[in-house]
């Protein structure tokens, strides 16, 4: 099997002038992977190039694939993902993946940006203060998930668990989701990409499939994102994500 012309062009766009060492040591595997990741899934699921790289970076963080993340971050910056956008993907991962898992990716991102001459720190993107983070976070949470659902979650919380709802609003949504640098539709695609790639978060995947629909991302977009994650996260987690999409956003009859 030879690498297709489309796969070669896509690879060259992301990694100009680079020849993978695996192309020398493992040519059969590289040919199969490149043809799937850089040709076949593009044909099945067209997705704007920078968005494709953003959701793949989010998935790689959740998968803890640090070496591949470095490579794909370089590609993302090459094709037009901005340093602010790249850093916001990492920040977005903190409440969903956890700082313990994000820590090394933050340092790797800083190293890649610095090597490209980007001066750190980047312009701040926070939109809240310690005094406003809960109020703003709950408002953003309501915009993303639906006010009735958030009100119900607060109403159902017992006195000894109410603080978890407040942390979810203030920390996850106020400190992170409300930040600038990425629009809310992109942030929700990043979130569902991370949750699918984590595995074991089926209820949260379903919840954020619904949230994606609520902010304007449709079934076709979610399926396109899932298709572009497939070569990097494997079939089991991809099929679990597909099940969630089918449950929450089923295909139209005859579609």
TrEMBL record:
Bilayer-crossing regions: none
Record-annotated Carboxymuconolactone decarboxylase-like domain positions: 27-111, 164-246
InterPro entries: 4CMD/NDH-1_regulator, AhpD-like, CMD-like
MF terms in GO: peroxiredoxin activity
Pfam family for this entry, one: CMD
Domain of life where this protein originates: Bacteria
PANTHER family tied to this protein: 4-CARBOXYMUCONOLACTONE DECARBOXYLASE FAMILY PROTEIN (PTHR33570), CARBOXYMUCONOLACTONE DECARBOXYLASE-LIKE DOMAIN-CONTAINING PROTEIN (PTHR33570:SF2)
Protein name: Carboxymuconolactone decarboxylase
Organism of provenance: Cellulomonas soli
């Amino acid at each position: 099997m030879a690498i297709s012309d489309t796969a070669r062009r896509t690879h060259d766009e992301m990694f100009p002038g680079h020849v993978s060492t695996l192309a020398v040591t493992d040519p059969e595997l590289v040919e199969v992977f490149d043809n799937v990741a850089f040709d076949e899934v593009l044909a099945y699921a067209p997705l704007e190039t920078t968005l494709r790289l953003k959701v793949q970076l989010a998935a790689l963080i959740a998968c803890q694939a640090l070496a591949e993340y470095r490579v794909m971050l370089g590609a993302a910056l090459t094709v037009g993902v901005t340093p602010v956008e790249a850093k916001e993907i990492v920040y977005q991962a903190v409440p969903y993946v956890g700082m313990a898992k994000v820590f090394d990716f933050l340092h790797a991102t800083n190293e890649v940006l610095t090597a490209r001459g980007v001066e750190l720190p980047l312009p701040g993107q926070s939109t809240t203060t310690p005094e406003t983070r809960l109020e703003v976070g709950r408002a953003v949470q309501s915009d993303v998930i639906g006010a009735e659902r958030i009100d119900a979650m607060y109403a159902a919380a017992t006195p000894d668990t109410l603080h978890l709802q407040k942390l979810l609003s203030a920390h996850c949504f106020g400190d992170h989701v409300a930040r600038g640098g990425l629009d809310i539709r992109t942030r929700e695609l990043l979130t569902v990409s991370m949750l699918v790639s984590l595995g074991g978060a089926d209820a949260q995947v379903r919840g954020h499939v619904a949230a994606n629909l609520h902010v304007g991302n449709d079934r076709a977009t979610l399926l396109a994102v899932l298709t572009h994650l497939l070569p990097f996260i494997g079939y089991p987690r991809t099929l679990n994500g597909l099940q969630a999409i089918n449950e929450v956003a089923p295909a139209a009859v005859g579609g």
